Amino acid sequence: xxxxxxxxxxxxxxxxxxxxxxxxxxxxxxxxxxxxxxxxxxxxxxxxxxxxxxxxxxxxxxxxxxxxxxxxxxxxxxxxxxxxxxxxxxxxxxxxxxxxxxxxxxxxxxxxxxxxxxxxxxxxxxxxxxxxxxxxxxxxxxxxxxxxxxxxxxxxxxxxxxxxxxxxxxxxxxxxxxxxxxxxxxxxxxxxxxx
Length: 195
Ligand SMILES: [Zn+2]
Hints:
Blueprint: E1 5-10, H1 26-45, E2 52-61, E3 64-73, H2 78-90, H3 97-103, H4 117-124, H5 148-151, E4 153-157, E5 163-166, H6 168-174, E6 183-186, E7 192-194
Antiparallel strand pairs: 1-3, 2-3, 4-5, 4-6, 6-7
Helix pairs in contact: 1-3
The structure holds zinc ion.
Zinc ion (ZN) binds next to helix 6.
């Protein structure tokens, strides 16, 4: 049977507050945060390769269970090890926009009464699309090490299977395209431009 090792990532991004053990809603809140964190890690690093698995670990604790996210991986599987180490090393410091949405469903804004100035303005306004940004430092190309700050970069699936950070020329050679599930393109400041 394959061996399994475990790396602990944490209960939430390092720079964010998290549910406090012992608080009345702890278990519910902590599981919600851990789930959002796992989802965010998958957005950032891609789905786990075979042999690696992000999971919520509950540890027995004096006050009940303590929840945190970690990655189980097969130490004999190169891709699994690389994924686990990358997630540990580059885990985000902050919730991304999706995770924030997941944790705090926004309340619908009250509708202005018909016929008022507010209603007229509201009918003319189109909400600006939220700018999506890369979380964390701009990565180097995994193939040629060119910094993504030079000409932008793509976080995408490669024709060898795993996801990688790629400069545009390397993406043209090794990538599988731009779009949901295959690659996201960012400019050199980390603003998402496609995908
Ligand atoms: Zn490159």
